[in-house]
Amino acid sequence: MIRTDILIIGGGFSGVIMALEARRHGFEDIVILEKASDLGGTWRENAYPGVACDIPCHLYTLADHPKPNWRRRYAAGVDIWDYLREVARSEHLYPVARFERKFTGAAWDAETRLWRVETAEGKVFQSRVLVSAMGPLHQPRIPDLPGLDTFKGTCFHSAEWDPETQISSRDVAVIGTGASAAQLVPHVARDAARLTVYQRTAPWVLPLFNGAIPRWLRRLYGRWPWLMRLDRALTFWLQEMTHRVFRGDPTAVSLARRIARRHMRCGLRDPALQKRLTPDYQIGCKRILLSNDWYPALKRSNVEVVTGPIKSVEADKIIGTDGIARPVEVLILATGFDATGALAHLPFQGRDGLKLSDHWSERPSAYLGAAAAGFPNLFFVLGPNTALGHNSILLMAEAQAEHVVRVLATMRDRQIDVVEPKPERQKAHDDMVQGRLAKTVWQTGGCTSWYKDADGRNPIIWPGTVREFRRLTEQSGLQDYRTVPRLGPRPGADAA
Ligand code: N01
Q: Which of 3.50.50.60, 3.40.120.10, 2.40.160.40, 2.60.120.10 would CATH assign to domain 2-39+93-139+338-485?
């Protein structure tokens, strides 16, 4: 049994952000539990060709760890992974990480006032504070297609890319047309003998302004870091302005649609193909894709786009609703992630045996996306309703981590042992979030998406701007939590 003060589950950006923030405030006894053999989260897992971030790099960096030498405005996935590992190395986080420890469940022990955390490898940890930093996009969604299990060729999800897989000169199929597909399809199209892209719903696609950052500018960024901060601030405000599209501002929506339509016309000359690739829902309802090579890839002579649902899969072919069987040797499932399911089934057992999955059976919700009533000293980074469609998610994780650590520091100062959010504060926050969401394109835009469950409920998206979220997290503090004072030494605290 390993005893620690703060246990963080997940070694992606949100876990690293939480660990750094805790350290900054003097919390040294930290463990990061990571299922894989390295830190990196989504950027370690997603290794498909073309993987990159659709938020400009100077904004997709930690506020206190600017990087002057990003080579392109939108960084490649591997460069982001390197960056995260470099930050972790320079901040000496590797020694506190426990790798190949797959979290399987945690229960609150009211007597010791500690969380008991178990892993698939049979290890047990005890911690005073538990932070779930598992991110929303880690559970691949494998489609329920008739006959998929009879397929005899190579088949894998985009997040389980095998670099050994031979694509060149083979018949390849990609199912899905989301952000992952938009990045990998242009690369696969160049290598494959034939590529069939199965599109169930057309995406909205905007141009990507991804210039190389010249060496002289990188040098200037290194010499005068305020230039980087200026770039970051300008980018932040530009991204915040795009929020108007998502709350349905008619001018912003019309401008975004016009740019997208023009982008499609420039990329695809064939009116019939344009028609099939035109989305039938409002722009922004699903994640807007940024790509300059998506349309050019789809019009290549070796690429075919098949629209509509798939009828079935056989040993070496896929049959579309058009009834045509197309041969496949390599089948790539770019079918996304079960974000709502992963959140709804988090295996935490709180006070009085309350299971989080029961507490969240209707819809996951948490105070500031960071804490849930009934679950003492348990916090989430990127918990319910904190994902964004318009700006850098790292800003949300930083705002939450700052809030959580401020609560922990106040607990330390005031000799408080246990906190959990006041139920009325949690409810008021959730009512506000869902009330605002109901008026956004994510709910009214006429689409399904990974933000929503099968019943259309949305436990994923934060409906406002980052600035609004930051203001809430900054204003909130221990007054919004129920507290239990420390009565002498914590029971069982000497048993380590
Ligand atoms: O997943 P998705 P993703 N039959 O859910 C289709 C982040 N990300 O991995 O729309 C046929 O968006 C599904 O069709 P439909 C980013 O936040 C960021 O691409 O449901 N098709 C859809 O086309 C992103 O939003 C970056 O009708 C099926 C696709 O599969 C999130 O990850 C890069 C199907 C899934 O699209 C997820 O993106 C990559 C079926 N049975 C990812 N089931 C960047 O930073 C599903 N589909 C750029």
A: 3.50.50.60
pLDDT one-digit tens code per residue, 104-129:
999 999 999 999 999 999 999 999 99
Nearest residue to 188 (alpha-carbon basis) of 333, 73, 317: 333
What residues does CATH 3.50.50.60 cover in the chain?
2-39+93-139+338-485, 148-203+242-333
Q: For residue range 397-445, what is the model confidence (pLDDT) as tens digits?
A: 999 999 999 999 999 999 999 999 999 999 999 999 999 999 999 999 9
Question: Does the reported pTM lie above 0.85?
Answer: yes
Nearest to 362, CA basis, from 257, 427, 455: 455
How remote is the CA of residue 208 from the centroid of ligand 1, in Å?
A: 18
Q: What is the Å distance from ligand 1's center to 240 Cα? A: 23
- Ligand 1 pocket, CB under 6 A: 52-54, 137, 143, 145, 158, 175-181, 183, 198, 200-201, 287, 309-310, 334-337, 448, 450
The CA 319 to ligand 1 mean position distance, Å, reads 21
Position of tokens 């500031």? 368
Query: 185 near 297, Cβ under 8 Å?
Result: yes
Please tell me the residue having the least CA distance from ligand 1 atom 39: 180
Domain 148-203+242-333 in CATH 3.50.50.60? The answer is yes
Ligand 1 pocket test target in 161, 450, 462 with most atoms within 8 Å of CB: 450
Alpha-carbon separation of residue 451 from 33, 277, 466 (angstroms): 26, 22, 18
Ligand 1 atom at minimum distance from 289 CA: 48
Distance separating alpha carbons of residues 78 and 145, to the nearest angstrom = 32
